[in-house]
Amino acid sequence: MVEVSRRSVLQGAVAAGVIPSVLGGSPAQAADAVTSASGIRQSLAPTGHGAVPLRWLEDAPRTLAGTTFGVPWPKGALPGDQTFALTAGDGTAIPVQTWPTAWWPDGSLKWSAHAVSGSAPISADYRIEPGAAEAPPVAVSVSASNGAVVVDTGVVVVTFPRKGSAVVEKIERAGVVIARAGTLVASTQSAPSSDAPEEVKTKRYQSTVKSVIVEQNGPVRAVVKVEGKHRQGKREWLPFTLRFSLFAGSDAIRLVHTFIFDGDETTDFLNGLGVEFAVPMRGELHDRHIRLAGSGGGVLGEAVRPVTGLRRDPGAAVRAAQIAGQALPDPATWDQRVTSRLHWIPAWGDFRLTQLNAHGFEIVKRTGAGASWIRSDGGDRAAGLGYVGSPTGGLAFGMKDFWQLHPTELEISGATEDEATARVWMWSPRAGSMDLRFYHDGLGQDTYAEQLDALEITYEDYEPGFATPYGVARTTELTFWALAATPTNESFSALAGAGALPPLLRAEPAHLHSAGVFGSWAPVDRSTAARTRIEDRLDAIMAYHRGQVDQRSWYGFWDYGDIMHEYDGDRHVWRYDIGGYAWDNSELSTDLWIWYHYLRTGDAATYRFAEAMTRHTGEVDQYHLGDWAGLGTRHGVQHWGDSAKQVRISNANYRRFHYFLTGDERAGDLLHSLIVSDKTFLLLDPGRKVDPGGAWPPPANAVPVGTTTDWGALAGAWLTEWERGGDPIAKTKLVNGLTSIAALPNGWAQGGAITYDLADGTFTGPTEKQVSVGSLSSVFGLIEVMTEAVELVDDDAVREKWLEFCRLYNSTSAEQKAATGASWGSLNLKQSYSRASAYAAAQLDDPVLATRAWTEFKTGHAGYADSKDFGTTRIEGPAVLNPVDQGGFSANASAQYGLAAIQCLALIGDSLT
């Protein structure tokens, strides 16, 4: 295990001045920092830019809580502090809030993020362009004191206390408290439910607030970040970060909820994790209402005390009012046979909608504690929104990806009392406990030799003590509406849709491409038969893997967002139980492939696929606390189970898309945290099993960081931090890494003892030519990040050495030996590296090399050959549990085929025959 503590290493790093500060400063300051650090300062003479069309990712929503989205801009087009105007398709000016999220090295704006309120008119399309923003009729305002932060949207006022158990003190509307005491809740049990223990002891925890920070203060959007831990007695654990977004003129509150597991998986068995609010109840029991969203837009609408379906009829007007959620007429006007017997009608105070799996939910209710639960109804996939209140106001509460992230629950209790409780359970107490223990006992793999031998059969890299979930996280998105009255079923259904799939505005692929972001890709082009053939195949493999998520039920709290690695054709299942062949965990850049497919197609289903994967792989597959914070875990049966902890999995190159396309602050946190992940090389020896005799840890100026797989992941974090105008050490390390690797005799192919200096990111190695090239060296984002970095840094030596690597990987042994002094050996993944050949061909304007690249691509070495059948076969029972579509695909091959095809089409598409 690790002999040096993370704390001692990071304390030393702080003393050396290499830990980054929190991002901040004005846009102008950030742009100046980027420019001055670059060494290639350019005069900024903006060329301007016209209006950019925007459309909704899916269809125009019926309602909107508020949304944020990102738009890129070409280098030199706009100043770094450009303001923007937004107009609807009919020319109506829409209030918009703008902030920069990235700059080009010359200080010009690269990415802008924008916020639109749910109170704004909804149009099918919009235009955003440089100009003065329309002000909202009433701006959101933020006031801060020592005791609390108060946000007023003009419709609701929300108070965030700076200490205590409540993360939200109260939500008011028109002076009426709609909800109060918003608190995080969790519970544990002493033994796992799966072991059927004879005795189980439970403990309940509540949030305790540690800090409250205002990140945005309007005029359209305010963001309040609340951090803390869950607490019972003296124990504090399960740290959380909450971001509440509120919008001008809106009654909605969006919440991005992140928690980190920092317990002992052998003793801490979580059996509940949620958010709750107390909701004051007003009016008679028959004027109090419940709403629960089902599937397909369906709604269960019930009154706490129903007056429909009785033996005696209170009257049509009474019944109609209750169904509509309105206050009922004076009971004196009813049929008195009902009025005189109201006290005999049971009042239902407790409701639950529980989604324990992806294929079924159930709704139950009861009159109160001590009474039995009565089944109300059920269905397949609930939208994930509930409501409790009366005609004078109430709270709607729900969760994005509700059924996908099962086991979930919406719970209402005490609706017959003066105050009800509304809970969103991200882990339902009805599901039993989370069991995060490793799935086997080690099988006697006590030595490195035994572990390496086991790797040969199960592809699992096991090591005692490494299969820990300590430090993994999960992020969930929730929405709350403080409503003035009980909503109709129609309006509630619209709210449920907006919460389940929050609407997003997007620029078209043509604009994203014209802005020159994210390297080598181009929008879909079916102008020739040859291009169409590849485009059809790209669509086919994307649809296949996306469809497998549903056919194989790759859902659940810890699993949703990932896909499986390899297929077992004998059992007609993915190898979910075979070591390293199970969950993919970003292996060979699956995330990158899906994001690039979205960029060029604008396809909504692909975006949601990529979004879910980014939320998963950036949280669950990565450590956020402890010695391995900043590292991810290699593919396996459990997401944290493999002993290979690597920066190639925590890879910032896989997260950047989500951040820039949405402005999501949680994604920004992850990216920022990764700029110090190079320091994990002092805490964990990645080569401990193959070279166990070496001294560890190494000196900080001679760390064995690889110049390809490792450095490519680190470079993605530094590039993003540089673009965002963050800590200048990121730019320093990126540039020093590029130039020092290029200065090695064989650049990225250099072998021998190469070491890395943690202080400034410089590599040092042999002065004579040696060769060491691995097949995996560039398939974890290095090719993609280099495509961007080479242009941004604009160093001839870097460009030349990188082109040499790209040109030589798939070349002949003779060519390799002539350039580098030795053959590179029998390398794998030649189809993958066809995009490296294509990049060199485009840069060198070499048609012969372009032809070679297409030959490499079509041959399909370690991928999909041109002769492959890209169709699928339907397999039905009894050969399989459920009917499935089976194809000859793997996640590795699909991701690398997709990336190679996309980049070859963009770079040398005109050479395709």
From TrEMBL:
Q: Which domain of life is it from?
A: Bacteria
InterPro entries tied to this protein: PcRGLX/YetA-like, PcRGLX/YetA_2nd, PcRGLX/YetA_3rd, PcRGLX_1st, TAT_signal
| Domain PcRGLX/YetA-like central beta-sandwich stretches | 140-496
Give every PcRGLX/YetA-like C-terminal alpha/alpha toroid domain span: 502-912
What region holds the PcRGLX/YetA-like N-terminal RIFT barrel domain? 52-130
Q: What is the protein name for this chain?
A: Tat pathway signal sequence domain protein
Q: What is the lineage of its organism?
A: Bacteria, Bacillati, Actinomycetota, Actinomycetes, Micrococcales
